[in-house]
Amino acid sequence: MKKSILILTGGGPAPGINTVVASIAKTFIAKGYRVLGIHGGFKGLFSSAPQITELDFLLADSIYNRGGSFLIMSRYKPSEEDFEKNFNISLFVKNNIELLVTIGGDDTASTANRVAKYLSIHNHTISNIHVPKTIDNDLPLPLQRPTFGYESAKAEGARLATTIYEDARASNNWFIICAMGRSAGHLAFGIGAAAHYPMIIIPEMFNKTTITLDKIINLSVSSMIKRLTLGIKYGSVMISEGVFQELSNDELTKSGIIFSYDDHGHPELGKVSKAHIFVELVEKRLKELSIDIRTRPVELGYELRCQPPVAYDLVYCTELGIGVYKLFSEGKTGCMVYIDHLGKVMPLNLVDIQDPVTGKIPPRGVSIESDRIQTIINNIFHFIKEEDYHEARKYVSNPEEFDFRKILNW
User: Fold this and answer.
1) Which H, E and C letters describe 317-364, residue by residue?
2) What is the chain's alpha carbon radius of gyration, rounded to the nearest angstrom?
3) For the chain, what are the domain ranges?
4) Among 107, 136, 138, 313, the one annotated catalytic
5) DSSP 263-327
6) What CATH number matches the domain at 4-148+309-353, 3.40.50.450, 3.40.190.10, 3.40.50.300, 3.50.30.10?
7) Strand order from edge to edge, sheet including 174-179
8) For 151-305+380-408, CATH number?
9) Confidence class for position 97, pLDDT limits 50, 70, 90
10) DSSP letters along 24-36, please?
11) Cα–Cα dist 5/19, whole Å
12) pTM of this prediction?
């Protein structure tokens, strides 16, 4: 029977998924393999009638530069009972599958390991290789290499953020934008920096103080007051949705947001409008201060996930797809494909980046004290500091309450 590989995609979409899938398919087809794609993520492996598409060259060639995911995705997390009762092992046996390729985040990678172990116990040994994907850029890849999809999402986010900023300038008001990023502020900071936003708020900024809603609101107002002292009546604030991960239960209750949770226990941030909540809180504070500024909410998230990949990700994802074959041909398994800044393909074993106690992969945060980040904060941001107190008192009686560095305890 002809040898086969199986590809599945888990989690949410990111620009470049189809490029990875197509590059894997083209490479393995040229080596004599059948390439199968399964729809529904891991849920398809626990179905008696999984939806399978065989990828030939023409299909791969038609999707390699498309956004979204040709293979239907899901966040399905199988239980132990699923493995005992529902796992479709015949799919692997009948199709002579030698390799399972998973594309997703850390949850997808962890479940792939469980699948491989189960198959090995049942005398069907396969290799499994993972391709790390997230627009959040929060997987701890060596040398600060980005995760694929991040650069494309940032590029589209910057285009939209620049348009929003122009609207603020044209109408003399302020927009408060909440950008996607479950636990790290890479995307929000990257978009905000590219669009020259006068205030960007990400969870990593609260490295010396507890994060609260009041501090987030005061940082926003600090930028507004500073611009008023400069004679500028417009602007935009970029806030990472990841701040919600760090808020205490009391603070979340204060915000009025009630979260639902996905199969992996993560709050489903996309179901609520964080920007709307922040606008309500900021406007309440402005009203208390008798400052006449209009604010508008904007969410940036789902608009970014399925855009066509930019050239950076087209090349990067092609290299990752080819890298899967290289690692497989070398007998590697249970690893992620990693490409360093010189283009060298290497296996990145999950055990090397997992927490030794919990087994989870800790997120990579923004290096807030790095020169690269501090340069933006010190030269592009607008905020109140001590030398601004005199001018700021024209608008507030207590400017020290809105001192950027005092708020953050920097």
Assistant:
1) HHHHHHHHHHHHHCCCCCEEEEECCCCCEEEEEHHHHCCCCCCCCCCC
2) 24
3) 4-148+309-353, 151-305+380-408
4) 136
5) TTS-B-GGGS-HHHHHHHHHHHHHHHTT----EEEEEESHHHHTSPPPHHHHHHHHHHHHHHHHH
6) 3.40.50.450
7) 199-201, 235-240, 174-179, 295-300
8) 3.40.50.460
9) very high
10) HHHHHHHTT-EEE
11) 17
12) 0.91
270: its two tokens: 């996309």
Closest by alpha carbon to 373, among 382, 362, 361, 381? Answer: 381
- Whether residue 205 is predicted with pLDDT greater than 90 in this model: the reply is yes
DSSP 178: E
Most confident of 80-94, 332-346, 391-405: 391-405
The distance from CA 263 to its chain's CA centroid, rounded to whole angstroms, is 17
Residues 6+ apart with CB under 8 A from 360: 106, 110, 354
Contact status, residue 203 vs residue 184, Cβ threshold 8 Å: yes
The Cα–Cα gap between 12 and 73 comes to 7
Residue environment code for 212-240, b if the CB has 16+ CB neighbours within 10 A, otherwise e: bbebbbbbbbbbbbbbbbeeebbbbbbbb
Q: Find out whether 222 and 260 touch, Cβ atoms under 8 Å.
A: no
Rounded distance, CA 280 to CA 243, Å?
17
Question: Residue for token digits 């399925």?
Answer: 306
In this predicted model, what pLDDT tens digit does every residue of 280-311 receive, in sequence order?
Answer: 999 999 999 999 999 999 999 899 999 999 99
Cα atoms found within 13 Å of the Cα of residue 272, Cβ hemisphere only = 16
Q: Is the pLDDT confidence value at 222 over 90?
A: yes
Tell me the two tokens of residue 191.
Answer: 């978009």
Phi then psi for 185, rounded to 5 degrees? -105, 20
Position 290 scores a pLDDT of 96
**Which residue has 């999707």 as its token pair?**
63
Which residue in the block uniquely carries the two structure tokens 């402005």?
Answer: 286
Tokens of 228: 């008023």
Measured CA to CA, the distance from residue 270 to residue 302 in angstroms comes to 8
b/e burial code for range 375-410 (CB count within 10 A of at least 16 → b): ebbeeebbbbeeebeeebeebbeebeebbbebbbee
Q: What single letter denotes the amino acid at residue 40? A: G
263 a catalytic residue: no
In this structure, the strands spanning 199-201 and 174-179 are unpaired
| Backbone φ and ψ of 266, nearest 5° | -90, 140
**What angle (nearest 5°) sits at the alpha carbon of residue 376, between those of residues 157 and 182?**
45
Q: How many residues does the chain have?
A: 410
List for the chain the helix, strand, coil content (%; round to 5). Answer: 45, 15, 35
